Amino acid sequence: MIAILGAGESGVGAALLGQAKGLEVFVSDKGEIKPVYQEKLKSANIPFESGSHDYDRILSATEIIKSPGIPDKVDLIQQAKSKNIPVISEIEFASRYTNAKFICITGTNGKTTTTLLTYHLLHSAGFNVALAGNIGESLAEKVIKDEYDYYVVELSSFQLDGMFQFKAHIGILLNITPDHLDRYEYSMTKYAQSKLRIAQNMTFADYFIYNLDDAVTNEYFQPDGFKGQPIPFSINHQPGAKAYYSDSQLITNYNGTEKQIEINTSVLIGKHNQYNTAASVLAAKIVGVAPEKITQALATFKNADHRLQTVGEAKGVRYINDSKATNVEAVWYALDGIHQPIVWIAGGVDKGNDYTTLHPLAQEKIKALICLGVDNKKLVNSFTGIIPVVEETQSVEEAIIKAKSLATSGDVVLLSPACASFDLFTNYEHRGQRFAEAVQKIVLEPLQKEK
């Protein structure tokens, strides 16, 4: 019997795949299972429990598939490991049932954009490709029919921790900066080692695309002795870089032949998106997408919601939803990519942030900070004297009213929180939706009525 802990997208997908392969499956979630997932399990006649864990039943399993949101330190997982019951991720489980090739993306920041862009480049070129993983779609459920030649998979460090035999054909590591360190005993070494699992088990037929400009990645990844093909990329023409930028072109030479790809059609802004684009283009090139098709697809790409997403413009002021920026590094990228004066909305549940890295950009670009959170002390203390105007609120509507009064034509109002959302919102999506709704109601609707 296989026990599945967590009945969200990945857990229910794993249960459906397990049943399809003739395995006995039991699903357990300590929280309340959402009705949509309960219905899926009931329709498939898969036994499950909601609101508790039956330890005896779970610990009699031959294998446990764990939701990435469950830490290894919880008592049930510790007991399972003491009994030598393998604990794996849904991705590891799903990979056993397909011969398709995996293009996998991880990194502290940028992985969702890079995953979506890589998928878009392949799909636009006519490749038989699916999207899965941390992006919010179950790989296991897609593998039941297994109709694809390629899976483009976003992977969090938590998913990678439960992957052992899995092998990516192309692995992409964008960057490693402090995040989720509470899950790694506050050790950057352990966190970096988790991210580097994306390159495990590779052979010479596989490719590891990584950021040569990222100091932490280069500290922990050792190309010597690596069995796959290392493909380092850089914004600049660094020694050893197999892809780099020159004006509006991305120059690639990973296979001994230099190619130039026009990237000026891209709709993505900021230096961080240059890295994301380089990684995606390299992956597309490796699987055989023609340069002209890459250039065409870059112009038609639409990024994920809540990631530097323009949600309105009025009286010369642009309102940008970057609610997915839940750490300092992501905010740095957002600020770096915007060239207009900024009214910045930030705050939420602090994750041990060090805001000093933002001070130079804040002094240069930010005219006002609106702290949106239950406890704003750290943000206020960090930016008082750095940013001319610092205000507080616990209401997204009030934040927009304040921002509207502070912004003038040519400015950007940017929601880029640097914090988790759980003090005032259900998740970062909820926060971004509320921001977009408030912009519509407070900024855009009055203009429409005036007309």
UniProtKB/TrEMBL annotation:
One of its GO terms (biological process) is peptidoglycan biosynthetic process. PROSITE patterns: FOLYLPOLYGLU_SYNT_1 (PS01011). It is an enzyme of class 6 (ligase). It catalyses: UDP-N-acetyl-alpha-D-muramoyl-L-alanine + D-glutamate + ATP = UDP-N-acetyl-alpha-D-muramoyl-L-alanyl-D-glutamate + ADP + phosphate + H(+). Pfam families: Mur_ligase_C, Mur_ligase_M, MurD-like_N. It is found in: Cytoplasm. Its main location: cytoplasm. NCBIfam families: murD. PANTHER family: UDP-N-ACETYLMURAMOYLALANINE--D-GLUTAMATE LIGASE (PTHR43692). This is UDP-N-acetylmuramoylalanine--D-glutamate ligase. It comes from Adhaeribacter arboris. The gene is murD.
